[in-house]
Amino acid sequence: MELVEERYWEQDPDFLRRNPAGKVPVLRLDGIIMSESAAICEYIEETRPEASLLPSDPVQRLEVRRLVSWFDDKFHHEVTSKLLYERVNKKVTKQGYPDSKNVKAGAKAIKYHLDYMTWLLDHRRWLAGDVMTLADFAAAAHLSSLDYISDVDWNRSDVVKDWYAKIKSRPAFRSILADQVPGFPPPRQYNNLDF
Questions:
Q1: Residue 37 · residue 25 · CB < 8 Å
Q2: CA dihedral in degrees (38, 149, 119, 128; nearest 10)?
Q3: Beta-bridge partner residues of 129
Q4: For 4-17, how does the pLDDT look when each residue is reduced to its tens digit (9 = 90+)?
Q5: Of 62, 127, 154, 191, whose CB neighbour count within 10 A is largest?
Q6: What totals of helices (H) and strands (E) does the chain contain, helices first?
Q7: How far apart are the first and last CA of the chain?
């Protein structure tokens, strides 16, 4: 599989043909062009069950889906859009300067979310239960983008810090950590547990 950088903010006609919503990710797999991360993950889960990221138990699947929604909706709205979009997206898309009210709101909200993650991880090995699931990857994707701009206080929770170290040490997560945003310095590189 080849990873292609897509500058979705440039509204390239070829990209918009593949995904009229103008959003990433877009995946070409099995001759199909797919968009929307949840739909892509479900497709991969259904067509490649040998590395399952959704438990077979319906109650456990519900919890995974609930947490994926938590991070992709609630966390995104309260934290990612307030910090990453204000500090990075506005600069990249030349839409002005960060709104300090949004940045302050995001900085406050991330504390609540890290505390919730701490509570979950105090009761479970992974966010949704005893095995790593899509919920862990959804959360890690958001935190990775915020870590890129140094907006995660890893000292707030040792259990979340250890969880993130386990996720980011996985080979599948390495390419995300190597991403670089145009006009920004390269991401800080860590050795598994060295923050």
A1: yes
A2: 20
A3: 126
A4: 666 667 777 887 78
A5: 127
A6: 9, 2
A7: 31
